[in-house]
Amino acid sequence: MPYHGGMTEVFIVDAVRSPVGKRGGGLSTMHPADLLATVQRELIERSGVDPEAVGQVVGGCVSQVGEQSFNVARTAWLTAGLPLTVAATTVDTQCGSSQQATNLATSLVGSEIVDLAVACGVEVMSRVPIGSNSKGEFGRPIPKAYFGQYEFTSQFEGAERIAEKWGITRDDTDAFGYNSQQRAALAWEEGRFEREVVAIDAPDVDDDGKPTGSTHRVERDEGLRETTPEKLATLKPVARENGVHTAGSSSQISDGAAAILLATGDRADALGLRKRARVVDTCLVGVDPVLMLTGPIDATQRLLSRTGLSIDDMDTFEINEAFASVVLAWAKEVGADLAKTNPNGGAIALGHPLGGTGAVLMTKALHELERTGGRYALVSMCCGGGLGTGTIIERL
Question: Percent of the chain scored above 90 by pLDDT?
Answer without folding.
Answer: 95
